[in-house]
């Protein structure tokens, strides 16, 4: 079943609530104050089914100028607006303000409903219609159908329902793909159930049992129960008015304006980049002027930092960075409205370009150009920018979340390299990869120049130089890609340039042979490294001999030649195959060496899991095949 949200808009006392009651049979004025005063002060909710089977949730918003804040909290999820204008009064101040707000929230579909038609003559209705058309020129309602209605007599209600149905069938259904987000517009507690929040699910889908986060407070919770239009459901979808029963959360911990979404879906921010537009009749907005910022169901005080000018005049647009006094929980492409701090007048709005930017310097051409590209080139540019700015490949899910896109497969992303790791798709920017390759070459060239006898730099050291403190399998993934493309080679956790080889000169060859002979001739009582002639200058050569397998390093001071090591190993294995266990003293005698060296050799075998010590004896730690 397709679901849409219909919202009312219009001046106070023009019959919005009465019209909803006539359509649905439900009185959306739920507060005692509202019933006593006869005006709507907060949001009201109802629903009904259209003839085509589409279920329409209805949001009734207050018309009084004092309650515009509440109107804004409900308007963010509207698909179709019913602009309600009383036939006996015509267009009034809040009529215009509501239309301006809806325009900034990018609502594109609507119907104009002339109410109280039973109170005026038909000739007067025609005059009012002309006035309405004139006032709505240039707005999204310029060519909207006009329906004459009397909520008292029922005149025109059937025409209104059919017109709404026709429009509802044309309205694009909200996507249930992507992350679920529900801006909270009501919070209350029900005995026996606990805390309940309501709102319009603006994207994705949510299921009973889902883990959720309450932003910006970063409170973790779980969906205990779900209701859509007063019925229990297992799953709620984008475009539905939804009530969520939250587990382990107190009602006082949540407030209108908070957002329910998956954990790690949103990074709350007090600074956002926007494209800001002012209404034609708005007063001039000065740089750093205090404003009221509205997005989703939240209101936050902030300042507008104009990035390319000192003043923004009515009818103009510019890029701006909004500094906020409290966190907002937004994503790229979210819409917003601004009002003056005092007196509170709607003056503009726009679209969020970057919800988590760095602080910008004003009049920075590069910043302006980037924001222009985000606005004009859209999703493709943002995806590539996100991936380029990341040191490591980004997962497809992370890109979708940060860029606020549902499907990245539809874009021609020729600048990105697609990788697969543990059944997940990752993307890496070609330019970033080329930069990383160039940096790797520079590091390795420098290392080879300074360490000509070393087979390569340790993989961990190279990771630290390239990625800092980042610990991720993706680092190894990049190395594997470089190795596959024959930029580097990796052996024994050492990384070198593909064509690098240790080349010894005549003097180094002589030193190499001398050291090998010393260790070969000393059998199982080798000299300490620090006792060798030429120490410490010979250390690089000893390390080289270890790397090529001519020497085996038992500890920092003791080394064995390859032949002696293999003999020591064979002696041990052969003895243990016949005797099952061996003591230090027996092994010492078998090698005809001292206790110190026998101990060093056995401890090395323990470390490589050849042997296992049990009390005073050692046994084979694994099966040895002949």
TrEMBL record:
GO terms for cellular component: cytosol. The lineage of its organism: Bacteria, Bacillati, Bacillota, Clostridia, Thermoanaerobacterales. This is Selenocysteine-specific elongation factor. InterPro entries: Beta-barrel_SelB, EF-Tu_GTPase, EFTu-like_2, Elong_fac_SelB-wing-hlx_typ-2, P-loop_NTPase, SelB_WHD4, Small_GTP-bd, T_Tr_GTP-bd_dom. Its main location: cytoplasm. It comes from Caldanaerobacter subterraneus. It comes from the Bacteria. Residues 1-172 form the Tr-type G domain. GO terms for biological process: selenocysteine incorporation. Translation factor necessary for the incorporation of selenocysteine into proteins. It probably replaces EF-Tu for the insertion of selenocysteine directed by the UGA codon. SelB binds GTP and GDP. Gene3D superfamilies: 1.10.10.2770, P-loop containing nucleotide triphosphate hydrolases, Translation factors, Winged helix-like DNA-binding domain superfamily/Winged helix DNA-binding domain. The keyword Transcription regulation does not apply.
């Amino acid at each position: 079943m397709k679901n849409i949200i219909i919202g009312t808009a219009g001046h106070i006392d023009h019959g919005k609530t009465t019209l909803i009651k006539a359509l649905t049979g439900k009185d959306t004025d739920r507060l005692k104050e509202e019933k006593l005063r006869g005006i709507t002060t907060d949001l009201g909710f109802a629903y009904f089914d259209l003839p085509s089977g589409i279920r329409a949730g209805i949001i009734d918003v207050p018309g009084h100028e004092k309650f515009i804040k509440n109107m804004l909290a409900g308007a963010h999820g509207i698909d179709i607006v019913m602009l309600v204008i009383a036939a006996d009064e015509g267009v009034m101040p809040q009529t215009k303000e509501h239309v301006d707000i809806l325009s900034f929230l990018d609502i594109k579909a609507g119907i104009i409903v002339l109410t109280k038609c039973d109170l005026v003559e038909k000739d007067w209705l025609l005059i009012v219609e002309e006035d309405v058309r004139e006032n709505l020129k240039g707005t999204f309602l310029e060519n909207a159908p006009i329906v004459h209605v009397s909520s008292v007599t029922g005149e025109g209600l059937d025409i209104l329902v059919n017109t709404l149905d026709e429009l509802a069938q044309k309205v694009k259904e909200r996507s249930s793909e992507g992350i679920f987000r529900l801006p909270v517009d009501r919070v209350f507690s029900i005995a026996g159930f606990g805390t309940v929040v309501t709102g319009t699910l603006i994207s994705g889908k949510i299921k009973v049992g889902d883990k959720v986060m309450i932003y910006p407070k970063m409170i973790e919770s779980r969906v205990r129960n779900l209701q859509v239009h007063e019925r229990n459901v297992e799953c709620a979808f984008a475009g539905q008015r939804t009530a969520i029963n939250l587990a382990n959360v107190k009602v006082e911990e949540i407030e209108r304006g908070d957002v329910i979404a998956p954990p790690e879906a949103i990074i709350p921010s007090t600074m956002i980049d926007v494209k800001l537009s002012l209404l034609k009749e708005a007063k001039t907005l000065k740089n750093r002027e205090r404003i009221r910022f509205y997005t989703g169901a939240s209101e936050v005080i902030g300042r507008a930092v104009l990035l390319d000018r000192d003043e923004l005049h009515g009818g103009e647009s510019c890029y701006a960075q909004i500094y906020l006094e409290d966190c907002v929980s937004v994503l790229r492409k979210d819409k917003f409205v601004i009002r003056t701090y005092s007196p509170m007048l709607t003056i503009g709005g726009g679209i969020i370009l970057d919800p988590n930017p760095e602080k910008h310097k004003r009049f920075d051409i590069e910043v302006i150009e980037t924001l222009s590209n985000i606005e004009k080139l859209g999703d493709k540019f943002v995806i590539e920018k996100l991936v380029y700015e990341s040191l490591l490949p980004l997962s497809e899910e992370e890109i979708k979340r940060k860029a606020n896109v549902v499907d990245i497969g539809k874009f021609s992303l020729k600048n990105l390299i697609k990788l697969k790791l543990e059944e997940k798709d990752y993307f890496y920017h070609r330019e970033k990869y080329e930069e990383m390759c160039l940096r790797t070459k520079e590091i390795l060239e420098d290392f080879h120049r300074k360490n000509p006898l070393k087979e390569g730099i340790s993989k961990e050291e190279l990771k630290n130089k390239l990625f800092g403190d980042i610990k991720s399998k993706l680092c190894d993934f990049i190395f594997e890609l470089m190795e596959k493309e024959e930029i580097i080679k990796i052996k024994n956790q050492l990384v070198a340039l593909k064509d690098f080889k240790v080349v010894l000169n005549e003097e180094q060859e002589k030193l190499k042979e001398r050291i090998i002979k010393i260790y070969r001739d000393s059998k199982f009582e080798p000299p300490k490294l620090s006792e060798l002639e030429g120490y410490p200058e010979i250390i690089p050569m000893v390390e080289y001999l270890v790397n090529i397998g001519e020497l085996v390093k038992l500890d920092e001071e003791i080394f064995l030649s390859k032949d002696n090591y293999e003999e020591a190993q064979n002696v041990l294995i052969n003895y243990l195959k016949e005797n099952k266990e061996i003591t230090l003293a027996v092994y010492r005698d078998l090698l005809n060496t001292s206790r110190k060296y026998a101990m060093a050799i056995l401890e090395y075998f323990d470390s490589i899991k050849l042997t296992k010590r049990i009390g005073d004896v050692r046994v084979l730690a694994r099966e040895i095949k002949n």
